[in-house]
Each structure stands twice: as C-alpha cells, then as structure tokens.
C-alpha cells in the first residue's frame, strides 16, 4: 500500500509543478526573470521559510482545525470487512497467479471454465479458423461468444467424451464465405479448470517474495488491513474535498502565491517545449493545444483554477494540522515520501534538495502526512 501512496503523491507533486497555474499574471512575469541557457531561474521554495511554511501567512486564517476535525466521523462501522469480501480478494489473487486444478471426474456445469478441443467441418472439410490446436482453448460453459448454442451444448458433457454439434453460421456472419452455412463441430472437453485453494504452502511458494506472507492467515489479515486503509483514505479524501476544494475560492489565494506558481507553470511549459522541439516546429502554442485543447490563456486559467485551489488548500491545511497536533516532520519521513532509502540514497536526496529546495520538499512531505496525522488523531491502527 505504501508504494501506491508514494506514487500517487509523486504524481500529484508533478501535476502541481508542471500544470500549476495561469491566473492573473502576464507572460512578462516570466520574461523579466534572469535567464541561464534559455531557462528561467525560479526558486520553488521562494515563498517559504526554512520549515516549509508560507511566509507571513497564518493557516488559522483559513482553517479551524479543531472545529473541522470535530465534523469528521470515523467509526468502527467503516471498517467491518465481511468474510465474503476477503474471499473475493483471495480469488482475485488466485486468478492473478493463474494456478488451477484440472477436473475430470464430473460433468460440465454452467459457468465452468472449460478446456475444449473442437474441429469444424463444412461438407466434411475443415475450414480456416474453425478448429483449435490439439491442447484446445478455454471457453465459458453457457457463454454466448460462439455461434448458435455451441457453449450451451457442452453443459452436461464429461471430460474426454467425444461429441458432435450440428450448427449453422448466421446469415449476417462477419466472414462472408461462412454466412448461413451448415457446420458440424467434433468436440471434446479436455478438462474443467477450477482455481486452486490457498494453503500455507501455496502462499509461501507464490506470494512470499512479493508480499512477505507466510500463511493464509497472513494473507487474510493483510487483505483486511489494506481494505480498511482504503476505506479510511476515502473518508479522509472526501473530508478534504468538502472542506478545502468546495470551500476555498481562487480569490482566497494570495496574489503572491498565484504569481509564483504562474511563473513555475510557464517555466515548465517552456522546458517541455524545448525538450520535444527537435525540429524547431514544436511551439509553445502547439504544446498548450496538445495538453489543454487550447492556447488561450484565459481558458487554460479556468482549467487550472481547481488545481491551484486544491494545491494551496492542502498545503495550508497541512500546516494548520501539524501546528494543531504539534507535529514536526523528520528527514526520515521526508525520504520515505520521495521513495528514498532512509539510511542511503544520499546522492539522490541531495539532487532533489538542489532542484526544489528543502523548504518546498518539507512542505510537500507535510501534505503527504495529512492522512497519517488524521489517522493518529483518531487512533486508527493499520
């Protein structure tokens, strides 16, 4: 689950940096900045203090955290996971592994997955595409993706039983040479495929390396925990949406923030254009049309307003929440957010700090911590 959260956060960070904002600011803002090799010098951390907080901005002016948290309802009812749901997840994992048993001692029942061999004959002659290889192909008993009632007629057949089916191709069949023709299929059910049942041995063999599970109980406990965590994130996401995106407006955002991210947006647009402009024909206008469907700045501003509101709201709420809970973010936590080894990856860490500045990195890691802090506040254990 952690790798999923990390990738989602990094995707959000990328969206916020590359697609940030085009509001209330002219291109001259960018053109007035100093240039090095055609690229503007823009400091991602320019509006932040050394602790990653917006300078001269009080988060309490935007959010009353104690009041907001009192409206968030998280109860045990949200995390009651049925055994049926656990079995569904186990079945999906079994399908993922592709492990099956071959059943040959009972008749085919509707809904069975069947390994079927058949040979189609028209006027006692085989025709192209009318037969399977010797090892057959998988079909669904009772399905409707063969002509006529082909797959209905295999219901009740025993494996290894040879039988024939007299059918007719539809008059509007997709292959004109077969339209309306009578066909005889010689067929045999080779076996019925059913998923294997999870055992401790099978879990260890198939899933230990990927999930570190050793027993079926380990698997079930982990599945239940992941589903509960998924529900918790959905609750928090809806809470944040209701109290940030649905409450803040573009007018609530300081003009300095709007201008700053506008500058970042234009820098990243020009960087992208330069990157893809191998033949000097890929212009800024073409890039904007490709990404946003228009090169009109006002239209793009409307498209990006929601991104800016969400970004700014999450940043300020994260700051307010951390202040309320007296939370200090650690370097180890920040490294975890960016997918770095806590006790290693120093070169990569220094590269990230050089590119974005430590204050910006702290701010984004604080945004990432919102769910963890809320879970801790409600004493949720995953």
List the helices and strands and how they pair.
Elements: H1 2-18, H2 28-31, E1 35-36, E2 39-40, H3 65-70, H4 83-97, E3 100-103, E4 113-122, E5 125-131, E6 137-140, H5 150-153, E7 162-168, E8 182-195, H6 200-206, H7 208-211, H8 216-245, H9 255-276, H10 284-292, H11 297-324, H12 331-337, H13 346-356, H14 358-368, H15 370-377
Antiparallel strand pairs: 1-2, 3-8, 4-5, 4-6, 4-8, 7-8
- Assess the beta-strand content as a share of residues: 5-15%
Structural class: alpha+beta
Q: What is Rg?
A: 30 Å
Q: What summary fits the major beta sheet? A: 6 strands, antiparallel
Low-confidence stretches: 1-40
Summarize the helix and strand pattern as letters.
HHEEHHEEEEHEEHHHHHHHHHH
Query: Count of DSSP helices?
Result: 15
Q: Domains counted in the coordinates: how many?
A: 2
Mean pLDDT: 84
- What's the N-to-C terminus distance? 11 Å
Strands, total number: 8
Shape: elongated
Portion of residues in helices?
40-55%
């Amino acid at each position: 689950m952690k790798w999923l959260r990390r990738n989602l956060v990094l995707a959000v960070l990328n969206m916020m940096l590359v697609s940030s904002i085009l509001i209330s600011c002219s291109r001259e803002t960018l053109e007035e900045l100093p240039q090095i090799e055609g690229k503007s010098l823009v400091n991602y951390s320019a509006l932040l203090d050394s602790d990653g907080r917006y300078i001269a901005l009080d988060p309490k002016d935007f959010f009353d955290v104690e009041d907001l948290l009192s409206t968030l309802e998280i109860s045990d009812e949200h995390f009651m996971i049925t055994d049926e749901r656990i079995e569904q997840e186990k079945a999906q994992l079994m399908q993922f592994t592709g492990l099956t048993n071959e059943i040959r001692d009972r008749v085919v029942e509707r809904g069975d997955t069947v390994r079927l061999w058949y040979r189609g004959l028209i006027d006692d002659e085989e025709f192209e595409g009318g037969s399977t290889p010797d090892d057959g192909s998988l079909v669904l008993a009772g399905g409707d993706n063969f002509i006529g009632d082909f797959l209905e007629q295999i219901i009740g057949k025993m494996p290894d039983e040879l039988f024939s089916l007299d059918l007719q191709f539809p008059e509007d069949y997709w292959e004109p040479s077969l339209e309306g023709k009578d066909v005889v299929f010689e067929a045999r059910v080779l076996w019925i495929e059913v998923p294997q049942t999870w055992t401790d041995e099978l879990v260890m063999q198939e899933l230990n390396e990927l999930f570190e599970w050793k027993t079926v109980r380990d698997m079930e406990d982990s599945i239940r925990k992941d589903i509960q965590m998924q529900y918790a994130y959905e609750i928090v996401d809806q809470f944040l949406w209701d109290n940030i995106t649905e409450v803040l407006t573009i007018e609530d955002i300081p003009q300095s923030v709007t201008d700053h991210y506008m500058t970042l947006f234009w820098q990243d647009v020009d960087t992208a254009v330069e990157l893809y402009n191998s033949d000097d024909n890929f212009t800024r206008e073409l890039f904007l049309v490709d990404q946003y469907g228009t090169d009109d700045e006002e239209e793009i501003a409307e498209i990006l307003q929601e991104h800016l509101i969400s970004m700014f709201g999450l940043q300020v709420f994260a700051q307010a929440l951390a202040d309320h809970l007296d939370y200090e973010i650690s370097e180890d936590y920040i490294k975890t957010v960016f997918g770095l080894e806590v006790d290693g990856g120093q070169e990569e860490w220094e590269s990230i700090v050089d590119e974005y500045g430590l204050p910006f990195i702290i701010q984004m890691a604080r945004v990432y911590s919102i769910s963890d802090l809320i879970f801790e506040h409600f004493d949720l254990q995953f």
